[in-house]
Write a structure and sequence with these properties.
about 280 residues; 6-stranded mixed beta sheet; Rossmann fold; about 30% helix; 12 strands; binds magnesium ion; single chain; binds adenosine-5'-diphosphate; 9 helices
């Protein structure tokens, strides 16, 4: 169920740098032998990961496996000297502003600045395009309004972020990342706060943007059935190591889920990928 990415189109802002092209062969993300220590504890120990341009890869794994740490390292929020290449350029060689035009992150629990309106928050995504000490341009505002429209948030632009529901706020976080115009989206549990309808709505939207604008998606998700329906490939992390990688059918197996999540599940075939159904470990008579 691998889907071919479409080329970038004129609608959304695009990175405008030589990183976003679908030039055959150079992956969007290349991670080799990534080690991350936090507070003196090894968290990631030799992680390899490749994401092709236009691909959707979802990292799964139990709580504490290191999924968020991996995304933070790929997004340049944690030092990872020599281990990460983005669109053929060593991550360490990217200056902050340039990196922001290449990769946009929706964190697992973004900090919500008190008193900030939706419009101002989404405008933060345009920071890499606004000169130091300068103001946003009409083009920046146009880009923000286009993204707000796309995410059904037009009526919300004056609302204070803190007053939105969890689902509305999640769409605003996504809007900020999209307004950034980066071609690589890092989504850390983008749907955890959402009801099942909004989960599908957000994932469908990301997939549509991916097809229409040639975006590359690296996500983490806890809902394994949903994860498998949208990912081209999945990577399972456990205790800071990759323990499985491949198509959703290769990774979402009863055996791997029992081994690494200590979960008792049935995996049944679905139209868009395997469906993972939790079952009680043993009958209580
Ligand atoms: P996941 O997203 O898979 O649930 P994380 O990447 O958030 O896992 O965390 C992986 C491990 O790293 C956890 O055991 C967590 O407690 C630990 N960790 C995260 N941040 C820090 C930190 N700043 N200092 C020490 N340990 C940390
Ligand atoms: Mg996490």
């Amino acid at each position: 169920m691998s889907r071919e990415p479409a080329g970038p189109s004129a609608g959304l802002p695009s990175a405008g740098l030589p990183f976003g092209g679908g030039d055959g062969g150079v992956p969007a993300v290349e991670v080799r032998g990534l080690h991350v220590d936090l507070g003196g504890t090894p968290i990631l120990t030799g992680v390899d990961l490749t994401v092709a341009v236009g691909e959707w890869v979802t990292v799964i794994g139990p709580n504490g496996a290191g999924k968020s740490t991996l995304l933070r390292a790929v997004g340049g929020l944690l030092p990872a000297p020599g281990a990460i290449t983005l669109f053929g350029t060593a991550s360490t060689a990217l200056r902050r502003r340039d990196r922001a035009r290449v990769v946009a992150t929706v964190a697992q629990s973004p900090v919500v600045p008190p008193g900030m309106s939706v419009l101002d928050y989404v405008l933060l995504g345009r920071t890499p395009y606004i000169p130091t000490l300068g103001r946003e341009s009409t083009a920046d505002l146009d880009a923000v309004h286009e993204v707000l429209g796309r995410l059904d948030l037009t009526g919300f632009h004056r609302r204070e972020l803190a007053t939105l529901s969890g689902g509305e706020r999640q769409r605003v976080f996504l809007a900020r990342a999209l307004a950034q115009g980066a071609t690589l989206l890092l989504l850390d549990e983008p749907t955890s706060a959402l009801d099942i309808g909004h989960q599908q709505e957000v994932l469908e939207l990301v997939d549509q943007l991916r097809r229409e604008h040639g975006l590359t998606v690296l996500a983490t998700m806890h809902d394994l059935s949903l994860a498998g329906e949208y990912a081209d490939r999945m990577v399972m992390l456990a205790a800071g190591k990759v323990v499985a990688a491949g198509t959703p059918s290769e990774v979402l197996t009863e055996h791997l889920l029992a081994t690494h999540y200590r979960a008792s599940v049935r995996v049944v075939p679905g139209t868009h990928g395997p469906l993972v159904v939790p079952v009680r470990p043993r009958a209580h008579l």
